[in-house]
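Posting for a labmate who doesn't have an account.
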Amino acid sequence: MRVMAGERFSEVIRMTPEDTVAFAKAAHDFNPLHHDVGLAARSRYRKLIASGTQMAARLMALSATHYSQEYDTVGLDFSIRFHKAIYADETVTLEWEVTRVTQTSAQTGDVVEMKGRVVNEKGELAVAATGRLLVTDKP
């Protein structure tokens, strides 16, 4: 097997309002909570929040980046659940843990099952995720 159950990897990122606005606009997420400072200040959040799409993309990118350094990697499916808003100016930790690895029937690769999360700077769960990747040797 290429990957082992129990493997963990993570990334700490500092969110910025500029990156939050740019990502939301690039993703065509025009919810003003992601790019209108004045409106966000009057909302229940009191300031800009990151788009859920941004956090989902960062989690998926972390898994792809981690495994593609050594293997060919393709995402099979991901499920994301949002628990708390992530503010556009906070530091968060993205984490994945491999929960199961199954060799493909043709023995050409492994299906890697993972559970992931994003934790805010207070240590609170903001996003929970599961994911599956196909990991194969590079040609």
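Reply:
Got it, the structure tokens are right above this. The domain at 8-136 is CATH 3.10.129.10 (Thiol Ester Dehydrase; Chain A).
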